[in-house]
Amino acid sequence: MQFRHPDGARLALTTGHVTFVGPEWTPLPPLFHAEALAAGCECDQRTIRTRAAIVPRASDAAVRPLDEPHLIREALITLAQRQQPGDLTGDGMPDLKVVAALCGFRAKKEVVYAIWHDLVDASLAGDAADES
Length: 132
Fold this sequence. Notes:
The protein is of the alpha+beta class. The chain has 2 domains: 2-43, no CATH class; 68-131. It is built from 4 helices and 5 strands. It has helices spanning 33-38, 68-82, 96-103, 109-131; strands spanning 2-4, 9-12, 18-21, 26-27, 42-43. Strands 4-1-5 form a 3-stranded antiparallel beta sheet. The longest helix has 23 residues, at 109-131.
């Protein structure tokens, strides 16, 4: 890239490198580009990269939106398959504390019960289809 400065500019780096940019277009090594721009020099390029472009990538620890119904459904399926005492209430409904421990968050009662009813209905429909 070429740079120029109307009044002239002395560019000095902390590495000991020094150069001068005058009113005429002067090619500069890449290590002077950032310093030339900071000194107010003009550049012959429209887009200037002072460092290598880094494509951002989400971290493994990044916050991701939860698919709560899916996680609740998986927790309820696990709960139904393991059949441990205390997993269900006296009414035959899943214990919300057990569901919270399995899915990792406190789920709303209405959502848990709606998904539970869907699972029970699907199970009954599957049993009826097996008998025919």
